[in-house]
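Why do we care about 3D structure at all? Because function follows from shape, and shape follows, mostly, from sequence. That is the central idea of this module. The next example makes it concrete: a single protein chain, its amino acid sequence, and then its structure expressed as tokens.
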Amino acid sequence: MKKHLFTALTLLACSGSCTKNGVSPYDPSNYYIMATVDGNRMLFNSLMSADTTRYGTISITGFADTTTYSPYIHITLRGNPPLKKGDYPCLSAPDFNSGILGYANWPGQILQDYTSYDDTVSVTDINTITVSGTFRGTVNYYAPNYSNGTYFLDSTKAITNGVFYLPLGRN
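And the structure:
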């Protein structure tokens, strides 16, 4: 009996020390997505995820508000598995590593989905549990011209000082 009690207490003591800088990798309050959008600092800490369902891809998403689901930020990292630390530039990378930054907003009842133009996403740390990094770029919203079926550049958003730290998982 004493042996089992000692083993249980030892495991309990060790479980508290299995953290990075005293921070548990399983506590959702430790994770974040933040960025400055057109000069306004924003948190995208609602319904955050770093989805690894697709092979060679990490899809990072977060909402600023779960009542309106707006605005919304999404980052897609693609590369030769396993994804590693480094830069993931917008779609033009010859070695297949790419990062795609997107932003969406719902003013009124209209979805404005801004697409990547000149962004860079940098993965600063990645392991089997978490991914962290930085991002910046310009995203464009092309609105439909219903009279002729084309699209025109309606607005642009500048996203700077972006940072993320999220658990990896399948969503």
